Amino acid sequence: MTATMTTPMSAADARAPRTYHVRTLGCQMNVHDSERMAGLLEAAGYVSADDVPAAAARATEAGDGGADVVIVNTCSVRENAATRLFGNLGQLAAVKRERPGMQIAVAGCLAQQMGQGIVDRAPWVDVVFGTHNLDALPALLERARHNAAAAVEIEESLKVFPSTLPTRRESAYAAWVSIAVGCNNTCTFCIVPSLRGKQRDRRPGEVLAEIEAVANQGAIEVTLLGQNVNSYGVGFGDRGAFAKLLRAAGGVEGIERVRFTSPHPAAFTDDVIEAMASTPAVMPSLHMPLQSGSDRVLRAMRRSYRSERFLRILQRVRAAMPEAAITTDIIVGFPGETEEDFQATLDIVEEARFASAFTFEYSPRPGTPAADLEPVPAEVVKDRYRRLDELVRRITHEENMAQEGRVIEVLVAEGEGRRDAVTARVSGRAADNRLVHAALPAGLSAHDYAQGAPRPGDMVTVRVTHGAPHNLIADSALCGRALSEAERAAGEARSAGDRAWYDDGPSLFEVRRTRAGDAWERRQAQAHAAPESDTAPVSLGLPTLRVGASGPAR
């Protein structure tokens, strides 16, 4: 085992609570795992660096957060993941030399894949652990400190289901709830099954118990997570389990929004569509990975569905939920992809009218069947990616413009999107998961919660006044009056992001205070207050209605 770089701690440093910072790369499952790592560390006596001003103040551009313990939760989906990781670790090494007692840990899929190889290339790393043993993190940190040597522990199979571990959730109003880990598919481009293992399902009662627990804590939105959520239940012999789970999750008291990601087209069934359409709390948004519009390429990818089936699914979803927003993933330049294959992808994208799409240039992952295939020339891949990106951007903008005039309810978020000085907009997600920037009524500050500004976790009802290329603008709070020529000219002179977008409708900005907003406010107060007694009462709060600028009922 390679020894780690260590800097002696002073007596004062040894007595102070150790701070931590988790940096998350990759998918929502990694976000979920990072919340568990944070929970484990707090249960072991560590404190988030964000909650310690002296620690946060010393944060550097290396992404250390100013912490004593930095955990990098890695992703291995992209080809350059390892290059980016070691570049970041090199930056952290410089920080570690100046920070007594600092430890660096590497977790996640790349850690599961490389193991000891990470320490061999970066001997200043203290801990490496994989996707199957998150629960070992506190013990590994202590072992590395005690032995002054790197602690590397990679398990080949899952030991403890991550969702059973303590957690510190990033959001007070929305929660990730894992229903399964691993994947039984054999897509030739994907490394995930070999790193996360075969699919293992949680029992429905355990999932619902967690949803009830987060609802009791104030959350009003949950997202059900799995590598292939609509295969949920196969492990315990109930192929209709996912549809049943959607209905049950939507019936949990206090939960207003249920989302899920990601399904697989090959296993997507009508009972799931029926559950989505008939359960009010299940949101009309669907992420359905296409990957390619060419049946020949889909066959080479081992995707086990064809383009016609994919389009039929979208047609059935839209027949049941006309307002549904459907997003997708697409890979460009899979080995052997011809111009005809690529044109088939463009044709499907044009027909499907996705609300947005995550597009990727194919990158080979060592250990996958596709890694040894003859690649498409890089210049061809880049040209195709550019053409696809242009098409996706056009369609996304057109679909956003089609939302103009709609009255929507937005869950206000923290740190999502921009708040500009001119319109004092707040940001959040509509029911269909589109990002919305909503202007506040004139004279109301975004942080003046006592005067009616919505808190993160509250709901606002607004009207879409502009469909921007990547989001919706809802400036209806500023509408309802005639503009002078000077006001109109001043607005049109501003950039698209800074101007107010008026329409001819009435003023509309209604705030509904929620338990989630109460929970966010409590968290903010606790983060800036001295620790309270364990017996201090905690109010869950009750939803109430607060109206800003007047407007018609929805």
Keywords:
single chain; 554 residues; alpha/beta; Rossmann fold; pyruvate-formate lyase- activating enzyme; 3 domains; eight-stranded mixed sheet; six-stranded parallel sheet; 22 strands; disordered C terminus
What report would you give on this structure?
With 554 residues, the chain is of the alpha/beta class. It has three domains: 19-153, 3-Layer(aba) Sandwich (Rossmann fold); 162-402, pyruvate-formate lyase- activating enzyme (Alpha-Beta Horseshoe), CATH 3.80.30; 406-527. Helices cover 33% and strands 17% of the residues. The chain is built from 17 helices and 22 strands. The protein has helices at 11-15, 28-43, 53-56, 81-98, 109-114, 116-121, 137-147, 192-196, 204-216, 241-250, 270-278, 295-301, 307-320, 339-352, 378-401, 485-493, 515-527, and strands at residues 19-24, 47-48, 69-74, 103-108, 127-129, 151-153, 174-178, 180-181, 200-201, 221-225, 257-261, 285-287, 325-332, 356-361, 407-412, 426-429, 435-438, 459-463, 466-467, 472-474, 510-513, 544-547. Strands 19-20-17-16-15-18-21-22 form an eight-stranded mixed sheet. Strand 13 (325-332), helix 14 and strand 14 form a beta-alpha-beta unit. Helix 10 packs parallel to helix 11 (270-278) and helix 11 (270-278) runs parallel beside helix 13 (307-320). The longest helix is centred in the C-terminal third of the chain and has 24 residues, at 378-401. It is globular, with a radius of gyration of 25 Å. It starts with 10 loop residues before the first helix and ends in a 7-residue tail after the last strand. Residues 531-554 have low confidence and may be disordered.
